[in-house]
C-alpha cells in the first residue's frame, strides 16, 4: 500500500445504545466496531456509508452528521475513517458480509467488549458531550 485508504463508518443509535458489528477480517479482526468499510473509487462518501451499512447490517440508513475522524496505522494498514451519525430508515438488523454479528450495546457494555480503542474513545468522547468532529489516531506496530 503506497497511500492511506479512505473508509467510512455508520454510527447508529437506538436510545442509549449504539450498533456494533463483530469484524471477520483485518484490521481489528474479531473485534467489535462501528459498521463500515472502504470507499470505492468514484463513490461519494454518503453512498459508501449507505452501501457498507446495508451490506454489513441489513439496515438502510441516511448519514446525517460527521461524528469523528479516525486515523489508524495498524496491521500493515493506514486508514483514514470518517464516522457519520446515521438515521435508520429501514431494513432488518442481520449481520452479513464482513460482519460475524451485529448488536446494540450501551457504553457500559461496550467497555467490557473486545472493541478497538479508537471505537471506544470516539463513543466515550461523544457521550461526554463532544459534538464537533474530532480526530483520534491509533498507531500499532
From TrEMBL:
Keyword flag Nucleotide-binding: no
Keyword terms, alphabetized: Hydrolase
Gene3D superfamilies: Nucleoside Triphosphate Pyrophosphohydrolase (3.90.79.10)
CDD domains: NUDIX_ADPRase
Gene Ontology MF term list: hydrolase activity
Domain Nudix hydrolase: from-to ranges: 3-128
Transmembrane segments: none
UniProt cross-references to PANTHER family, sorted A to Z: ADP-RIBOSE PYROPHOSPHATASE, DIHYDRONEOPTERIN TRIPHOSPHATE DIPHOSPHATASE
Name of the molecule in the record: NUDIX domain-containing protein
Native species: Metallosphaera hakonensis JCM 8857 = DSM 7519
Amino acid at each position: 500500500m503506497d497511500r492511506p485508504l479512505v473508509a467510512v463508518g455508520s454510527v447508529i443509535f437506538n436510545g442509549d445504545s449504539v450498533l456494533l458489528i463483530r469484524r471477520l477480517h483485518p484490521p481489528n479482526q474479531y473485534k467489535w466496531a462501528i459498521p463500515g468499510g472502504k470507499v470505492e473509487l468514484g463513490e461519494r462518501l454518503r453512498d459508501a456509508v449507505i452501501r457498507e451499512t446495508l451490506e454489513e447490517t441489513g439496515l438502510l440508513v441516511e448519514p446525517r452528521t460527521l461524528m469523528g475522524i479516525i486515523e489508524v496505522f495498524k496491521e500493515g494498514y493506514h486508514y483514514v475513517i470518517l464516522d457519520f451519525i446515521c438515521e435508520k430508515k429501514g431494513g432488518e438488523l442481520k449481520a452479513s458480509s464482513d460482519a460475524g454479528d451485529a448488536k446494540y450495546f450501551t457504553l457500559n457494555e461496550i467497555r467490557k467488549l473486545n472493541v478497538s480503542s479508537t471505537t471506544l474513545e470516539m463513543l466515550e468522547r461523544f457521550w461526554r458531550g463532544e459534538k464537533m468532529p474530532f480526530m483520534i489516531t491509533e498507531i500499532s506496530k
